[in-house]
Predict the structure.
Amino acid sequence: MATLNINLQFSGGMELLFDNQKSINVQIPSTFSDKAVEKHATNMRDLIAWTAENLVQERPELFLGNDGSVRSGILVLVNDADWELEGELEYEVQDGDEIVFISTLHGG
Amino acid sequence: MESPSIETLTARLSQLEQQNEALRQEVAALRLEQKTYSQHKVDSNANGLDHATLLSEAETPFEKVTKLTNPEIARYGRQLILPGFGIQGQLDLRNCSMLIVGAGGLGAPCALYLGAAGVGRLGIVDHDTVDISNLHRQVIHNEARQGMSKAESAALSVRLINPHCKVVAHDLVLDSSNAQPIINSYDIIIDATDNAATRYLLNDACILGGKPLVSGSALRFDGQLTIYNYRGGPCYRCLFPTPPPAETVTNCSDGGVMGVVPGVIGCLQALEAIKIAAKINESDVPTMTIFSANASTMFRTIKLRKRKPDCIMCGDAPTITKLIDYVRFCGASATDKTPDLFLIPMKERMTVEEYKHIKDENAPHLLLDVREKVQFDICSLPSSLNIPLKDLSKQIDQVKDQLRGQSQLPIYVVCRRGNDSQPAARLLQEQGVTTGEIRDIVGGLDRWADKIDPEFPKY
């Protein structure tokens, strides 16, 4: 099965959910399929679900939202750009992508 | 009696002279501070300004100038000769008014630099008072000002550096009832606050008032900087339409913060505000700057989305047209104080006095401290077992090991403030680790220090 090499990064406290790792290199399948959607190229929705299932060490509710996205207060970057510019959940993950999950900070 | 040698006397004398000189300097510094402070009070009173009319002071359009005075030219010389800034940049700054909300870790360096740089009018909002635990990062305040209003203390420090800057101290809690007129009376707003509710409030008030918002935040070793509502860029709600669940928000007093980190971000906020005022480096690409003191790349600037046309606040058809109740919206109070948790009824818990009694009686028990190890290392009660709350379910066997052969041993759970000890006690009850009682200590070690042992450190 073809795979994609992805670099995942965590900052702003997100790393606490990932055993304090700020950067994790992962290999994920290049296609996913589930009941609702037929086999399709891996997108951000798949990556987030995969990350929650395989990497989150504790309290997944601090990572996942209720719509297949991340919870509110987490900003996602695809190759140093706001993922909103790339299509958010529908963005098709590419081999070599750098995906960053940042928890927004409120302290001061 | 043996008389002291001449060397000892000379050394002691020189030591006393040095102490005397240090005291003289401190007296002189405090005199200047006192004079500046009382002069400002006299000015305020002479103009009929009291607390309630401070707002009208901020609302009066302040006088703009077309040229700088000689003392100003002498003061700002190093900026005036800067290509790309120059006399026009300095005049723009002089004719600009800025409001810093929060005189804490971010606001402290921000206010110092903006005041020193020559902003014409600088408002400072804070409702809190100076506390010793602020001083490692809030470098605008000092020891002598413990208990003083932070807004007043910050204003005083700026006046001591630069009397040309007109500083207005707003000693109040900013909320939806008072924010709009204050925001409207300044040109640029700086978000140096410490909680989500005030961040949404400032965002909405800046959209309604048409003001750019220079927003900074910091926690632990990380900081973030963004300009909202500026040159087609997004607002806070475009990025974060719904507030984060309250339990995911960590404040500095629980999460910790390296003092320099908000210092770095606060300085960057001052810089961005100056760039907006002096109209330099006007980019149309909205960005967020992320500072990670511990990462190999300390700074990274990322490209952000533009204003979202469907944003309920700044979009083409906004549905929010006036300020709302932000404390309710965020489900969290507009301070960074940690609220008390009431998970377990009081009568099933234990007071510090009751625990003192148990210790005095030498009654057998297990004391479980569920703070993080980094906090346990600062101070702990004798013979307590440390398992942090987040590890407790994984390490429940460690607790069971302690109870081997004494299955009825009572367990008392303690933490810093009596919040984490409650879910921990619940967990132990659910797991049935002992047949004896399981209770947690109300108010935690903080209250132990307050009520039982004044020698016990508080942090």
